[in-house]
Amino acid sequence: MPFLRSHPLSSFVDFINQADLDGLPDKASVIEAFFGFARAAQQREAGELITDENLNEEAAKRYISTSLRREYASENGTELNAILPKMSPLNPQYLTKKQSVFQRISAFVDKFKGVGGDVWLPYRRGCYARRIDKF
After folding, report:
1. Terminus-to-terminus CA distance in the chain, angstroms?
2. Which of 29, 31, 52, 114 is an S-S bond match for 3, by CB 3.0 to 4.6 Å?
3. How far is CA 121 from CA 42, 44, 49, 53, 54, in A?
4. pLDDT tens figures, 90-100
């Protein structure tokens, strides 16, 4: 589970502080609950990023989903340009905005690598249960 291994323990500590661990009967239930917690955080933070940066919502959702599947964000191609707010590429602020958006999305993707799924679909219980056998 890359999300557990490669990210600050603060996410897991937040989960422990908020979860009713006594109500979870086994290891599989704890993992399921954690992934549900992580997916909710992923959805919340993605929405905040889109709103804070005033991004084109539909294009940003596609770009973020693709980046999460690849497990990295790319500056190549036109996808990054398509998510930016309407602004002329000749505007001196355009490159600054593009770079800051790319850095935020890259950090977001790094943080949520391994959480899986489509960030815009509701979390379904049981979709991570088969990963347990690998550890």
Report:
1. 8
2. 114
3. 11, 12, 17, 22, 21
4. 999 999 999 99
